[in-house]
Amino acid sequence: MLKHKNNHQEQKKHMQPKPHKTKRFQSLLQTLLCYRGMSTIRVPETEPSAVEDCRKLKKAFKGWGTDERAAIRILGCRNAKQRSTISRTYQQLYNESLVEALESELSGDFGKAMIMLAMEPSERDAKLAREAVKRYGEDRYACVLVEVACASSPEHLVAVRRCYCSLFGASLEEDVGYLFCKEQPLAMLMMSLVSSYRYENGECEDDELAKSEAAALRGAIVSKQVEQDGVIQIVATRNKDQLKATFRHYKQAYGTNFDEDIRSCGGNKRYTTLLQEAIWCLETPEKHFAKVIRDSIVGLGTDEDSLTRAIVTRADIDMVKIKEEYIRAYKTTVEDDVIGDTSGYYKEILLTLLGSDNM
Predict the structure, then answer these.
(1) Confidence of residue 263 (pLDDT cuts 50, 70, 90)
(2) Rounded to whole angstroms, how far apart are CA atoms 339 and 344?
(3) Which residues contact residue 173 at a Cβ distance below 8 angstroms, ignoring those fewer than 6 apart?
(4) Which ranges are annotated Basic residues under compositional bias (predicted)?
(5) Is 148 in contact with 194 (CB distance < 8 Å)?
């Protein structure tokens, strides 16, 4: 027994991390522990008081200048639920909207990012959708409508539609239908996406249905008819687990991915682009948002609106996976690209949301 105990102690001693690696390991561990699911927002272990956060924000806004870093330390380090509580509490304490306070104190891309953080997610996305409706002629704004419709939960989309109607006195579905009415079958695709409700009741996917619909999708590819109603119906109505099963069977049966095969069909380029983005948002949103971030940075100038939208809207949801996909696809990190392409407090809030140590 004594010998066994000594051997066990020797094993433990052997397994101790080397001193020069301990600090690095602890830093990585701390980072991972700060994540909530796939979020990169570093929320304090002890939940802060919303009242105290509001007082600090109010203090940051007082005087001739604004303490931007104090605002970043609060709004950039609270999850969506905590930020919602802060916004309500601020209104109660000071009879003033936090969003309006931020609008009066901050400006530029930094101000836009902070204001988006202070909004309820449904209000934020309703306003993003409204802006996309106004500028739908540009593909990057049509893409926003796809994100709103496909990249979050069915309940969130319902909340966005309700908020859109309340804020703008109009129906998101009708506005989208009107905008694309001269672009069939794109109109049917976009209308179907923004008006859908994908029932996610926890049931296992239907394997036979997945095989059948994989075959139907293959038929559309072979006949170069991805614009047909059957394709739209599958993509716009099936829940995410069912769609993933269908795309998995497609890959197994035909050796390629459906989203990649779409490009070989020709036809309406805008339709195939938005259909592919819808599939990515439904099946692998990290792939879509990694591309949005990359496209916003490469080339001449920076598309700050797209960069802000992608990081602010996904930091609470799946930014860990997006960062992993970004490294895989582009052989660099989101943080490095943000550091190289942004500056000032705007850079600081983005890096804070990314959970970066490079501050």
Answers:
(1) confident
(2) 10
(3) 161, 191, 194, 195
(4) 14-23
(5) yes
In whole angstroms, give the CA distance from residue 189 to residue 137: 16
Task: Please name the amino acid found at residue 211.
Answer: K
pLDDT in tens, 303-313: 999 999 999 99
- Mean per-residue pLDDT, 8-17: 42
Is pLDDT at 18 greater than 80 in this prediction?
Answer: no
Q: In this structure, are residues 346 and 312 in contact, taking their beta carbons and an 8 Å threshold?
A: no
pLDDT of residue 47: 87
Question: How many Cβ atoms sit within 10 Å of the Cβ of residue 246?
Answer: 27
For residues 84 and 99, what is the distance between their CA atoms, to the nearest angstrom? 11
Whole-number Å distance between alpha carbons of 352 and 356: 6
d(CA 45, CA 51): 17
pLDDT tens for each residue of 158-192: 999 999 999 999 999 999 988 888 788 888 999 99
Closest CA to 84 of 318, 153, 92: 92
- As a CATH number, domain 286-353 is 1.10.220.10
pLDDT at residue 178, rounded to an integer: 87
pLDDT for the residue numbered 202? 59
> One-letter amino acid identity for 138?
E
Instruction: Indicate the CATH number for domain 121-197.
Output: 1.10.220.10
Residues 6+ apart with CB under 8 A from 338: 297, 307, 311, 347, 350, 351, 354
Q: What is the dihedral of CA 222, 224, 226, 230, to 10 degrees?
A: -60
Same fold, 50-120 and 286-353: yes
Mean pLDDT over 137-148 rounds to 87
Which stretches does DSSP call E strand in the chain? none
Averaged pLDDT of the chain: 88
- The encoded tokens of residue 338 equal 């943000």
Q: What is the spatial distance between Cα 165 and Cα 127, in angstroms, rounded to a whole number?
A: 11
CATH of domain 50-120: 1.10.220.10
